[in-house]
C-alpha cells in the first residue's frame, strides 16, 4: 500500500527553515578584585632604594673591562665641555679650607702660642668648668689644647666636669667634642711629632678614666668611639697592619675567604678586649662599621701594592671618617692604567665593588658594610 509522505516532508522542511526562538541570557555581574593589595608609595620607594645598589653591583660583575666601571673615570673633559661645580666638589673645597684652618690651629696647639696670650694655670681651667665658661674653655682648646688633657691634683678637666654632675653635662660634651676635633684634624706631618704622641697618650688616659667612671651611660657612644680612635692612633699601628694583612689574604680567596666577616670579627675582638662591656660595644655600631670598611680598603690596597710595588695606606688614617676611602680612591686614580693591565680580574672586581658601595654619605657605614657582605662574602664572586 502506498502512503503519501509529502505532508510530513513539508512539515519537517518548514521547521528547519524557521529560525529558533531567541533565548534569554543571564547577565554576568561585574565584581573585579585584586588578589592582594598593592603597597603604598613609601614601601615601593624603600624597596627600590634597597634593590638599586644590588643591581649596580650585579652590573659591575658583568663589566668586561675596568675602564667601563666607575673605578676608572676619565680625568679629562671632552673638547668644548665646561666643567661645572657639583655638590661634591663644593664640599671638597670646603673641607680643604677647613683643613687649612685646622692646620693653623694645630700649630698653635703644638707650642706656637700667639703673642700676648698667657697659658692658664690648671686651677683656672677647673674654675672655668665650674662656672660653665664655655667661651674660655673654647679659647684654651684652640690655643693650648694640651692643657685640657693634663692631670693636676689627681683630676683632669673632663673628670672634674663629670664629678660636678648633670648640671655640667654640656661642659663635658664640649670637652669630648674638643678631643674628637683634635684627633680628626691631625695632619700627616704631625703624626711623627713626639709632642703629638704625648698628647695622644694623655688623651687615651682621659678617655679611659671617663669610660670607667660611667660617662657613656649619659653621653651615648661619642666618648667610647673617641677612645677607640685614640687608642688605635696611639698604639694600634701593629694591630691595623696585622688585621689588614689578614683581610688581604681573605680577599685573595674570594667569597670563600669571607673578607667582610674577617674584618668585622677583628674589629669586634679589638673593641671587646679594650672595653670589655657589651653595652658599650653595641653603641659603637657606626664606628665599628667604619673600621670594618677601612680594613677592607687597606687589605685590598695591600694586594694591589704587592703587585705594583707601591706603599700602603698610612695606618693613622684608620677609622677617621672617610680618610682611608679618599686615600684609596686617589691611589686608584693615580695608578689606574697599571691596575688595569697587571692586577687580577678578581681584585679589579673587588676594587670596583668597594669604591662603588663606599662612595658618598647618603647611607650609613652599617648599610654599606652589609652590601659588601652580600657581594664579597655571599655573592657569586669572580
From TrEMBL:
Region (Disordered): 13-92
UniProt-recorded name of the protein: Uncharacterized protein
Organism lineage: Eukaryota, Fungi, Dikarya, Basidiomycota, Agaricomycotina
Amino acid at each position: 500500500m502506498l502512503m503519501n509522505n509529502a505532508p510530513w516532508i513539508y512539515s519537517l522542511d518548514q521547521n528547519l527553515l524557521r529560525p529558533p526562538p531567541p533565548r534569554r541570557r543571564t547577565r554576568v555581574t561585574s565584581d573585579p578584585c585584586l588578589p592582594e593589595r598593592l603597597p603604598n608609595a613609601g614601601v615601593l620607594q624603600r624597596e627600590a632604594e634597597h634593590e638599586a645598589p644590588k643591581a649596580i653591583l650585579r652590573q659591575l660583575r658583568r663589566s668586561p673591562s675596568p675602564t667601563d666601571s666607575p673605578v676608572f673615570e676619565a680625568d679629562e673633559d671632552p673638547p668644548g665641555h665646561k666643567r661645572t661645580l657639583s655638590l661634591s666638589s663644593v664640599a671638597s673645597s670646603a673641607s680643604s679650607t677647613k683643613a687649612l684652618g685646622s692646620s693653623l690651629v694645630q700649630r698653635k696647639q703644638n707650642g706656637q702660642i700667639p703673642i700676648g696670650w698667657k697659658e692658664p694655670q690648671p686651677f683656672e681651667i677647673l674654675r672655668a668648668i665650674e662656672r660653665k665658661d664655655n667661651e674660655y674653655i673654647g679659647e684654651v682648646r684652640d690655643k693650648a689644647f694640651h692643657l685640657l688633657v693634663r692631670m693636676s691634683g689627681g683630676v683632669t678637666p673632663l673628670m672634674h666636669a663629670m664629678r660636678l654632675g648633670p648640671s655640667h653635662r654640656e661642659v663635658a660634651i664640649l670637652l669630648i667634642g674638643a678631643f674628637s676635633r683634635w684627633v680628626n684634624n691631625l695632619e700627616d706631618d704631625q703624626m711623627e711629632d713626639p709632642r703629638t704622641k704625648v698628647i695622644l697618650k694623655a688623651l687615651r688616659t682621659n678617655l679611659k678614666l671617663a669610660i670607667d667612671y660611667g660617662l657613656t651611660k649619659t653621653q651615648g657612644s661619642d666618648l667610647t668611639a673617641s677612645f677607640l680612635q685614640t687608642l688605635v692612633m696611639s698604639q694600634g699601628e701593629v694591630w691595623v697592619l696585622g688585621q689588614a694583612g689578614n683581610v688581604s689574604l681573605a680577599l685573595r680567596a674570594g667569597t670563600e675567604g669571607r673578607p667582610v666577616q674577617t674584618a668585622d670579627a677583628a674589629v669586634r675582638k679589638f673593641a671587646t678586649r679594650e672595653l670589655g662591656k657589651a653595652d658599650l660595644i653595641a653603641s659603637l655600631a657606626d664606628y665599628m662599621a667604619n673600621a670594618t670598611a677601612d680594613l677592607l680598603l687597606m687589605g685590598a690596597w695591600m694586594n694591589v701594592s704587592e703587585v705594583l710595588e707601591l706603599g700602603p695606606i698610612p695606618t693613622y688614617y684608620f677609622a677617621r671618617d672617610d680618610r682611608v676611602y679618599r686615600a684609596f680612591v686617589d691611589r686608584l686614580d693615580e695608578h689606574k692604567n697599571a691596575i688595569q693591565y697587571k692586577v687580577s680580574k678578581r681584585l679589579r672586581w673587588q676594587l670596583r665593588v668597594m669604591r662603588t658601595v663606599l662612595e658618598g654619605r647618603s647611607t650609613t657605614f652599617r648599610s654599606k658594610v652589609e652590601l659588601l657582605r652580600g657581594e664579597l662574602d655571599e655573592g657569586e664572586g669572580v
